[in-house]
Amino acid sequence: MNGLAQRKKKEKRFLACCVAPALIGFCLFILYPAFQVFRMSLYKWSGGTGKKTFIGINNFVTLFTSDKFWLAFVNTLFLMVFVTIVTMALSLFFAAIISRGKLKEANLYRIVLFFPNVLSIVVIGIIFKNLFNPLTGIVNSFLSAMGKANLPNWLGESKYVLWVIALAMIWQAVGYYMVMYIAGMDGVSAELYEVSELEGANKIQEFFKITLPLIWPTVRTTLVFFILSTMNMSFQFVTVMTNGEPQGHSEVLLSYVNKQAFSNANFGYAMSVSVVVFLFSFILSLIAQALTARKDS
């Protein structure tokens, strides 16, 4: 018994030694900075070695009464909802065609659709910025050749700018999630499809009755992941393509935080926005999990 007890103690010590570095790193680089963000959101602070003045929840009061904050919030919500829905739908559509379509060029299509994910977001942002350039872009050149007058300034008009950013984000992400769904679909037993074909089911019925339910755990995981990653991607695309112009109509929450902290030297206020971003992302992930849980099996 003593030998068994000593062996269990050694196993526990070994496991503790394995877990300790990751736990320490998590506390130092995740928990502590997060705590500091929450704490500094209660101060008026210009950053660096500037004086910190405790002002309680005044930063949050200013935040929730700011039109610029709400515009950035609405823009972020639009991108998170629209880009997520369209990207997931297109990824599933292309994955189903390539996986179940028995195409000879399937590998070529995988490479072509996945290629945008190989490029950096900065490169993709520059590509789309040049494509939609009002003077030299291919899009307006094509519209002009088709005889259209009064060509739009895609990135300079509030009614177009978010749609262009959304298009760039969708183009960048579709291939990545398509490959993940193809991997899931390839794991579905071919016998299930053979039985469904004998019973007269068409391709659409097979997709919704067999394919989608069986890969739903993958879809659910990628859905939550993409909703949260859209927050970061939107900041990068906005920074490269518009920098929040025109007049803040393409501003998103993280670009708003960045400008408040580094352009306006208002770190305390920027931290309060960061707190709201964290809570918003957390609540949104819970909602997504709750809405998709009923289909999980």
Explain this structure:
With 297 residues, the protein is mostly helical. Helix content is 76%, strand content 1%. It is built from 11 helices and 2 strands; from the N terminus they run H-E-E-H-H-H-H-H-H-H-H-H-H. The protein has helices at residues 2-40, 58-64, 67-100, 106-118, 121-131, 138-145, 158-186, 190-198, 203-241, 253-263, 267-293; strands at residues 43-44, 53-54. A two-stranded antiparallel ribbon has the order 1-2. Helix 3 runs parallel beside helix 7 (158-186) and helix 3 (67-100) packs across helix 9 (203-241). The longest helix is centred in the first third of the chain and has 39 residues, at 2-40.
- Stretches where pLDDT is under 50 for at least 5 consecutive residues are none
Please state the overall shape, judged from the principal axes of the Cα atoms. flat
Q: Count of DSSP E strands? A: 2
The helix/strand series, from N terminus to C terminus, equals HEEHHHHHHHHHH
Q: What's the total helix number? A: 11
Alpha-carbon distance between the two ends: 43 Å
Strand arrangement, major sheet: 1-2
Estimate the helix proportion, in percent: over 70%
Q: Would you tell me the structural class of the helices and strands? A: mainly alpha
Give Rg in angstroms. 25 Å
Largest sheet: 2 strands, antiparallel
- The amount of beta strand, in percent, is under 5%
Overall average pLDDT:
86
What's the layout of helices and strands?
Layout: H1 2-40, E1 43-44, E2 53-54, H2 58-64, H3 67-100, H4 106-118, H5 121-131, H6 138-145, H7 158-186, H8 190-198, H9 203-241, H10 253-263, H11 267-293
Antiparallel strand pairs: 1-2
Helix pairs in contact: 2-11, 3-7, 3-9, 4-7, 5-7, 5-9, 7-9, 9-11, 10-11
